[in-house]
Amino acid sequence: MIHTEANQRTMKLSRAEYKAIVRWTEHLRPTRQCMKMLKEQFPNHSQSTLLSIFSLEYQKRTKRTISRHHAPEVIESHYQRYLSEAKAHPTAPVLLQLANEVDLSPALMARLILDRFLQDLEGGMPSKTLLNSMLKEPSLIPDLLLANNIYQCTINDCCYGPLVDCIKHAIGQEHEVLLCDKLKERNLSFLDENQLRAKGYDKTPDIILEVPVAVEGHIVHWIESKASFGDDHSHRTYLNEQFWSYWNRFGPGLVIYWYGFIGELDCQRDRGILLKDCFPTDIVTLCHASQQERAPRAPE
User: pTM value?
Assistant: First the structure.
């Protein structure tokens, strides 16, 4: 179920509000305990919005630092340290603790260590298929102690890993279903992404309206659902890789960032891209507009 707290408050933030949250996340780790601390610091913002902002910021941090963790000598150092500490403390989550200590995502640390373990086991580089299957199902790992440590890393990481990927996919699907339900409630005729692909379209928004509507005075032909927060980097990427191509093919449209966005980014309305943090309540259909035009005016 989609959390109702996300629908009870506006999640559009000013740039100043956004920067205050970002500054506070700079030294947090991608653990559920840290997310609890973040929520306590910013109680007026939804947990979904805070998690989305942190996840985006942590991914940027990881991209800046990941190369140093992939150096062969660093991987070997992490692996030998894991072996030593796991032997000394077999019941402790040593891999999770090591990841937090060196500021690496627990799920990414788990991947590095499992890959190194499999190199010894397989006598060479393991296949991605084998590696991914064991990360998704740690019980397949022949070393029980390592399996437990991999599992601890996976369930305690809120930004990376197979569990997070599964949750993100489910949330994305859930919001697309919510969008379709809202459109049906308004009796608006539309084609969804699957129907558009069946018609031969390769790059499509989530929804094409068969009859355009007006939202806050702006014509909308298509709607894109984003179950995330819209920050500068992600919105710029979406504009260049998705939204402008939708605009070129289908005309002006609406993007819903369900977990909010930086308010200043909603600056393309006159060019044909409208941003909202919820399903719009003031939709004007062609039928309604025609009725208003035909309605008799009061005598002056």
Answer: 0.86
